[in-house]
Amino acid sequence: MSGVENAPLDAEPAAIRFVEVSKSFGERKRRHLVLDRVSFSVPKGRTTVIAGGSGQGKSVILKLILGLLKPDAGQVLVGDRDIAAMGYRALQEVRMLFGVLFQGVALFDSLTVFENIALPLRERTKLSSEEIRQRVAATLDQLELTGHEEKFPAQLSGGMKKRVGLARALQLDPEIVLFDEPTTGLDPVMTREIYELFTRTQQRLGYTAVIVSHDIPQIFTLADQIILLNKGELDVFSEASRIPYSTKPKIREFARQVMGQEAREG
Amino acid sequence: MNQENQEQQRQPSAILRFVGGIGDQVLYVLTDLGRMGIFLYFSLVGLCKHPFRFRELVKQVGFIGAGSITVIFFTALSSGMVLGLQGYYSLHKFGAEGMLGSAVSLTLIMELGPVLTALMVAGRAGSAMCAEIGIMRISEQIDALECMAIDPFRYLISPKFLAALISVPLLTAVFDVVGILGGYLAGVKLMGVNGGAFFAGMQQSVTNHDLRLGVVKSFVFALLLVWICTGRGYFVQKIRGAGFGAESVSTVTTQAVVMSSIAVLVFDYLLTAVLL
Predict the structure, then answer these.
(1) B176 in a domain, yes or no?
(2) Cα B215 from Cα B171, distance rounded (Å)
(3) ipTM score of complex
(4) Angstrom distance (rounded) from CA B67 to CA B60
(5) What pLDDT does B81 receive?
């Protein structure tokens, strides 16, 4: 199963490549195959949206990219380095390239907003306290969070938590930012605001964005490339209007169920 | 019909299923032991990594050590007083009340002090550490640390290890002193044993070897309880039958306290047998 042949942005340099990757879960008798020889690439500096129904392996793809899971077979290449074959120290170096916004945001609930955003700078750089303070203040200002520095995550709304998570993810100037279901639990207005924020920050910083979402079709408005997953099949598209014409039957079926006739008409 | 017969033939017999189940369980236990072994290795290695989180260490010593003083004080006082009364009752039968100081102090220093301190710390601080790390795991906070290339062992686990290794022996010393005072109160003040004989007996019978045994035990118990409690929390999603979400954290926390308590009692016997 390979989507590489259909990938419209294949000619561009790839930030991440999956080559014949398989991943399954569960113990021997109850093994569940989530990814079956999946191949695709994520072009540099662009936004790739990975969409599909629940339990189709979208978040697994992110965890494979981060080296939090190891594939059963195949290669996950970041640049030209295979994540799956890396030792702990090399993996730590590669992870410095990434910023991650988790589905549940994963803010440290015992730290304030300021401490959460400052954490990667304190732990991974040699910046002085004053430099860290200035840098965090600038980020808080950009993301309209000024005045909330001393609050704890439990005191923030869902949308504010996402913004704090994004601020933390961007602190080390990542080359690649991964978003795991970034609008889950947000109302439509907040969802639109978050999408606008993503577009603005990506245009300003020029990072490669990988967004995993089931917010279909709204999420497609952000995409330079769309990867759809359904029941073990995967296909790659340059725009949402091409999805109903996929050569993969399960992808067409998914498009019919989720996007309806409206998408078919483009 | 033929197909049904073939299906039946393909099904493993009850005995095979039983043996397979045992094998499966053995493999799970071995995997779990291996996982915990690697966890212990990384936690100890994390102690040597820079930058060391000194403020976190102080915070954890405060939580594990200073925070446990009240429960340790009352447990020690109660145990010492009961020992004083029970010891007096038994020794009185042989007219050997003068040995009470010796009996109370040796029992506390070599056995009850290290064991009860470890059990109390496992119940109070061990359960909290397990739940904290378990919640951080299920809410992806530990994944977030890894994604920021921050070593979760150095950042999160190792300070707890060092704090337990500092706090538990100190709490054991407090337990011993308060316990002996409890024994003194019950034996001397309540039952009328001679105070001079109580302390003289203690001075004569307690040797450096006995003190060393108590200290070694308290270090080993500290390591066991912090290892098991933090380790179970860290692997909350990999523990068979623990369930999911909040339920898994509560199940694993209970399991961690039970396992660390049993480990303390088993190692108490082993250390006594080897070092006495």
Answers:
(1) yes
(2) 11
(3) 0.76
(4) 9
(5) 93
For residue B151 the two structure tokens come to: 């070593």
Q: Which residues of A touch B155 (CB under 8 A)?
A: 123
Instruction: Give B-chain residues touching A98 at CB under 8 angstroms.
Output: 147
CA distance A86 to chain B (A): 14
A106/B148 touch (CB, cutoff 8 Å), yes or no: no
Q: Is A149 exposed, middle or buried (0-12, 13-18, 19+ CB in 10 A)?
A: middle
Taking the CA of residue B139 and the nearest CA in chain A, the distance in Å comes to 6
Rounded-to-integer distance, Cα B17 and Cα A165, Å: 49
Which domain covers residue B78, as residue numbers? 53-275
Set of chain A residues whose Cβ sits within 8 Å of the Cβ of B63? none
Give the pLDDT confidence of B139-198 residue by residue, as tens digits.
Answer: 889 988 888 888 899 999 999 999 999 999 999 999 999 999 999 998 888 888 888 888
3-class secondary structure, B118: helix
Asked whether B198 and B187 are in contact (CB, 8 A), the reply is yes
Q: How far apart are CA B244 and CA B249, in angstroms?
A: 8
Residue contact A120–B150, C-beta within 8 A: yes
For the record, the structure tokens of B181 come out as 């005072």
What is the pTM assigned to this prediction?
0.79
Residue B43 maps to a domain: no
For residue B158 the two structure tokens come to: 């190792």
Residues 6 or more apart whose Cβ sits within 8 Å of residue B229: B122, B126, B127, B129, B130, B256, B257, B260
Among B11, B24, B129, B148, the residue to mutate for chain A (most A Cβ within 10 A): B148
- Chain B residue numbers with beta carbons less than 8 Å from the beta carbon of A173 are none
The pLDDT tens digits of the residues spanning A175-225 come to: 898 988 888 777 787 788 778 878 888 888 888 989 888 777 777 777 888
Whether residues A95 and B148 touch (CB distance < 8 A) is answered with yes
Cis geometry, peptide bond prior to residue A217 (ω within 30 degrees of 0): yes
Spatial distance between the Cα atoms of B94 and B164, rounded to a whole number of angstroms? 42
Using the beta-carbon criterion (under 8 Å), do B147 and A96 form an inter-chain contact? Answer: no
Torsion over CA of A109, B160, B272 and B257, rounded to 10 degrees? 10
Matching residue, tokens 């236990």 = B29
Q: What is the mean pLDDT of chain A?
A: 82
- Nearest CB among B136, B139, B149 relative to A95 is that of B149
Return the closest-CA partner of residue B227 out of B31, B29, B38. Answer: B38
Give the H or E element holding residue B110: none
Chain B residues within an 8 Å CB radius of A109: 139, 141
* CA pair distance A164, A144, nearest whole angstrom: 10
Please write the tens of the pLDDT for every residue from A108-123: 988 999 999 998 888 8
Number of structural domains found in chain B: 1
User: Has residue B19 been placed in a domain?
Assistant: no
Question: Given the structure tokens 């294949």, which residue do they identify?
Answer: A10
Collect all residues of chain A within an 8 Å Cβ-Cβ radius of residue B150.
Answer: 119-120, 123-124
* Alpha-carbon gap: A79 to the closest alpha carbon of chain B (Å): 17
